[in-house]
Automatic annotation (TrEMBL):
<comment type="similarity">
    <text>Belongs to the universal stress protein A family.</text>
</comment>
<dbReference type="InterPro" id="IPR014729">
    <property type="entry name" value="Rossmann-like_a/b/a_fold"/>
</dbReference>
<feature type="domain" description="UspA">
    <location>
        <begin position="1"/>
        <end position="139"/>
    </location>
</feature>
<feature type="domain" description="UspA">
    <location>
        <begin position="147"/>
        <end position="274"/>
    </location>
</feature>
<dbReference type="Pfam" id="PF00582">
    <property type="entry name" value="Usp"/>
</dbReference>
<dbReference type="InterPro" id="IPR006015">
    <property type="entry name" value="Universal_stress_UspA"/>
</dbReference>
<protein>
    <submittedName>
        <fullName>Universal stress protein</fullName>
    </submittedName>
</protein>
<dbReference type="InterPro" id="IPR006016">
    <property type="entry name" value="UspA"/>
</dbReference>
Length: 276
């Protein structure tokens, strides 16, 4: 992990994200790319006359405010690149990530405590669904960024193998212990223990060529996938929950409906998404 992007809107929650990113940057000797997007109307971006001067004026004001915002004691010793863009939508964060070859995006969110839930029309949703790199969502002031125990929600389908391998690579470098959680539901998607175990064997055989990590799989029966993931993560004492996504196409079939969004909404733990 060499470069971490943090979108900043000067809110309390974006500072939570900045603090978390700073801790990760120090642990990994990474560079922080602090991004502020000055949202402007189409008229300002395409208008003639004095519009260019107005754009320059607002950009200068944003840069000045941004510079003041980044004067934090916890950022000392970290390489920081401030970036101010006049993007109109947060989905364009992915373009910045590709341009700078970033490894991770860190964002703050208020979850269900605010007027709207985390994933309903929020900027964080737009970033998560468009991002081609992992997105870490935090909702409070993290005292530490020690992800000693990581819980990965997994249905053991072949399309989630890449997510598992990427996550394994990222967190093995942090000496984290990873557990995979499978939720069995009491409906038409119910599977017997033998059926699930066969899927797990096939998953690890294709992913790693061995079954060394079979003991790290936790099966749980619950009424909803969301409850199963959250309850299992708490039981494991996890510091982080990982959820695979299909980006713009919606969540993986394992997370039918709004399960992935609900996990991110209701988890008190940080949640990281990996695009399938």
């Amino acid at each position: 992990m060499k470069k971490i992007i943090v979108p900043i809107d000067f809110s309390e929650y974006s500072e939570y994200a900045l603090k978390a990113a700073a801790k990760l940057a120090k642990k990994n000797n990474a560079e922080l790319l602090a991004l502020h997007m000055l949202e402007m109307s189409d008229i300002m971006l395409t208008g003639a006359g004095e519009q260019p001067q107005k754009i320059i004026y607002f950009l200068k004001l944003a840069e000045q405010k941004f510079e003041e915002f980044l004067k934090k004691d916890y950022l000392e010793g970290i390489s920081i690149t401030p970036i101010v863009k006049h993007f109109k939508v947060f989905s364009e964060v992915n373009e910045v990530a590709k341009k700078y070859d970033a490894d991770l995006i860190v964002m703050g969110s208020h979850g269900v405590s605010g007027a709207k839930e985390f994933f309903i029309g929020s900027n964080t949703e737009r970033v998560v669904r468009s991002s081609e790199i992992p997105v870490l969502v935090v909702k409070n002031d993290m005292l530490e960024a020690n992800f000693d125990i990581v819980a990965i929600a997994c249905d053991f389908s072949e399309e989630t193998i890449e997510t598992y391998l990427k996550a394994s690579n990222m967190f093995s470098n942090m000496d984290s212990k990873m557990y995979l959680i499978h939720v069995n539901l009491p409906n038409d998607r119910f599977k017997s223990s033998i059926e699930i175990e066969n899927e797990v064997v096939n998953f690890f055989t294709k992913a790693e060529g061995n079954l060394n990590n079979m003991s790290d799989v936790h099966y749980v029966s619950d009424y909803t996938v969301e409850d199963g993931i959250l309850n299992s993560a708490n039981k494991l004492g996890a510091d982080l929950i990982i959820v695979p996504t299909h980006g713009r196409k919606g969540l993986a079939h394992f997370f039918q409906g709004s399960v992935g969004e609900d996990v991110a909404n209701h988890a008190t733990l940080p949640v990281m998404t990996f695009k399938i």
